[in-house]
Every structure is written in C-alpha cells, then in structure tokens.
Amino acid sequence: MSAIIERRLDRRGFIGGLGAVSAVLATRCTTSTSSQPLESKAKNKAASGSDFSFQEISRGLDETHHIAPGHSADVLIRWGDPLFDDSPSFDPFNQTAEAQRRQFGYNNDFIGVIPLSGRRALLCVNHEYTSTNLMLPGVAAAYPDSITREHSEVELAAHGGTIVEIEKTGGAWKPVIGSKYNRRITADTTPMEVTGPAAGHARLTTSDDPTGRLVAGTMNNCAGGITPWGTY
Fold it and tell me: pTM to 2 decimals?
C-alpha cells in the first residue's frame, strides 16, 4: 500500500515539482554570488508560495487537541452520542448492545460526506474495530477472562458504520438527531445479501443461513468510500 501511495504522490507532484525546480534553478543562476544558501532561499520561496497561511503547531501527543492560532475546532459527534429520538443517554458504566445500536459507534476510520444542500449533508463513518480494554470498564485488569457474552454483544453493536445527517447552524456543523437518513450498521443485526461469484458457496453457509447468501452484518472494515453516484 505504501508503494502505491508513493507512486501516486510522485505522479501528482511531478508537474508542480517542475515549477519548483525551475524556480530553484533560476535562483541558482541569478544569485550564485549571494551569501544566502540556496536551500534557504528555496525554503523561503516554498513558504511564501504555500496555500497554507496558518502558523504550524508542534508535533506531540497529549490530552489536548491543539489548534493553530486563529483557528477553532468543534466536536461534531462522539462515541455513544444519540442518533435517533429514542436513543438512550450514553452511560459508559452500563452499556448494552441495544443501546449501542441507537448510538454513534466506536473507532472512526473512514469518514465521507455526501452533500444534500449548501448547509446539509450526510456524514458516513466506518467503525472499524473496538478497543475492549478502553471501552469496557473493569475488563482490562482480568482480560480476557473477564469478557462476558454481554460485553461481546456491545462490541459487535459498536462495529459497522454510521450514517447521520449534519446541518450547519450558527457557523458550526451539528448532527440532526432523529433525521430520516440516520442509520446504524452493525456487525450483528444488519442483514446483508451476498452477491457475486461467492454467493451460495458451501463455505458461506451457516446454521442461520444454509443458503450462503445472507450475513448478519459487517465488521473490521478498514476504510471505505463514496461512489461517483453518491452512495457510501
């Protein structure tokens, strides 16, 4: 995957790089007697021509969400936040699979946006996996012996994906609780039809579906995508 990304970035930056190289070569030709190093001039040139005008923040890892000066960040939606009018309040110490199926899922991975209008859109989020020792209080000390069936069901319900309508009000985006578009996709209660050459194969048959054409849900998806025709 890294090799594919590198090749794509190389192609994407080639034309722009030609312009940068030309500028550097021109600088070399006209300032060969200057006391300022060529590398410094190139860096200054790149900085002055950048599309980014904010002050860079230092790299680090702590409990603070660092923001460049003059900018702001808002929390749009969090694990356990409600999606529907009947969604229960999030209680991390009393989780159930039933509650999680009505709440925003765990561990955001892919995030896509499908515009509905200038101020409304669908946010499509993939919930790739769960971190048992972080999301289930009291489990870490005796993991994995402390895992119960109820714990596993909560985790299955936290997998999958979320589709939630968002709306820009007062300069900030907010989820539209109870929108007709809102949906939770889980690993255990979102029936999906199997299509293609694998459909009906003996290795896909289960006691719940001996035809091998229906699965209970989806889990552990790494990434996702918005299609050209506007589906997630």
Answer: 0.73
